[in-house]
Amino acid sequence: MATHKVKKIAVDTVATTPDFDLGGLKSSRYEKLQVSYGVIAADAYALGDTLIFSDVPSQDIIKATVVAHGSDPAVLDVYPGSDNSGTFTLSLPSTVTSAVKLSYIIEYIRGGGRVGPDAYKANAYGSGQALESGEGDLFKVIIATGSATAAVAEEQVAGNSVV
After folding, report:
1. 106: exposed, middle or buried (Cβ count in 10 Å: 0-12, 13-18, 19+)
2. pLDDT tens for residues 81-130?
3. 9-21 in b/e burial notation, b at 16+ Cβ within 10 A?
4. DSSP 3-state assignment of 98?
5. 8 A C-beta contact, residue 74 and residue 151
6. pTM for this entry
7. N or C: which end of the chain has fewer CB within 10 A?
8. CB-CB contact of 70 with 96 (8 Å)
9. In angstroms, rounded to a whole number, what is the distance separating the alpha carbons of residues 89 and 52?
């Protein structure tokens, strides 16, 4: 069994032994950490809609949680290492036939400016403007109905789908 140290940059300490440092450690000082949170009323969206959090200036999402409140709650948790270039799916139980109140908490490292591709910015801020491409993690969630066993859903790091 090998021993590995988790550091910011991977370093092979001794080329002849399996002991080496693993890269991937991220850290932040308190003043860069921000949290966006809120509640979305059930009458503000419909099942199958996509929610785009384009006003969250997130350079790097630390953790995001979306909770669908109802008689059978559903939860979507997104963790570091997730591919935020796609859209996450929050699967509501099949017993849910209409939109329910949603609450969300997004913990992130603040970046500069707005995030996401030009298409989202053009739709939100008027077309025909010269817009630079977005930088950072854009958080997008599809609210869909799923199976009755999907009361608590967890995001799959590789596939951006909820099981």
Report:
1. buried
2. 777 667 899 999 988 889 999 999 999 888 765 666 554 444 444 444 44
3. eeeeeeeeeeebe
4. coil
5. yes
6. 0.69
7. N
8. yes
9. 12
